[in-house]
């Protein structure tokens, strides 16, 4: 593999990792928001 190809692979891996991190963070925020909403609504046990 040439250095140019390695750089391309690294850039793609980095962009995929960033997308996955953003999606994971959004999921965590969604679950947190739903939990807070349920607590404020006084969800019955």
TrEMBL record:
Keyword Membrane among UniProt keywords: yes
Keyword check for Transmembrane helix: yes
Domain of life of the organism encoding this protein: Bacteria
Entry's transmembrane regions: 17-37
Entry keyword set: Membrane, Transmembrane, Transmembrane helix
Protein name per the record: Cytochrome C oxidase assembly protein
Species assigned in the record: Sphingomonas abaci
């Amino acid at each position: 593999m040439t250095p140019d190809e390695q750089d391309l692979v690294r850039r793609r891996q980095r962009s995929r990792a960033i997308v996955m991190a953003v999606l994971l963070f959004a999921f965590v925020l969604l679950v947190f928001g739903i939990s807070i909403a349920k607590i404020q609504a006084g969800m019955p046990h």
